[in-house]
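Memo to structure team: turn this sequence into structure tokens by end of day. - J.P.
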Amino acid sequence: MSDQRVESTEADRLERLRGLFSGSRAKEGVGRALGQGAFGNVLVGALLHGADRVRQGDEPTDLEKLVMDAVGPVLSEEELKAWGGVYRDAAEAGGPLAVVPQTFASRSADQGYSIEDLRGDLPQIIADTMADPNVQIVDPRAADRHEDPPEFLAAMRESKLAVTAFGVPGETFAIDDSPQDGAAQPPATRAWTAVLCSHTG
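Reply from structure team:
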């Protein structure tokens, strides 16, 4: 086996990004694996939206800056701006974008996406994620815990990716049973202990 590495160029990476947006790589399962549908991939959306805003001279939001700084060691500022331009072209062409939530496709460049926006969207993101057929929560105590539903297996084969959370529903409990200085007792909470496992089909 050769250990020779194949280097990709900036042009190669931009072309792959265009392919992801257009859905031309759907036959490889890449689009769905990275997140189609309403929830998509929020951090990828924030990265690309922020890159486009910086390209147009706007200041990134706290979240946009956070994700752009994270890829800074890999992508130069100029290449990241080019990614933003590809994203903007795809968004303006209309139709769904295969790898980012639709909230970004309809968001103008002068409207950033912040951590506060993410907080507000998170309940819907979670609900949409759990509604996806290649995501499931399994109670490890259940008798059928080793049997995956047919629709889950079919979705995994189609997308080449699936996620199982092994969760045990917890008893209702109080966070602190000895509040200090007359502080109000936090409300009781129902918890899940979960371990996430990914699958590839």
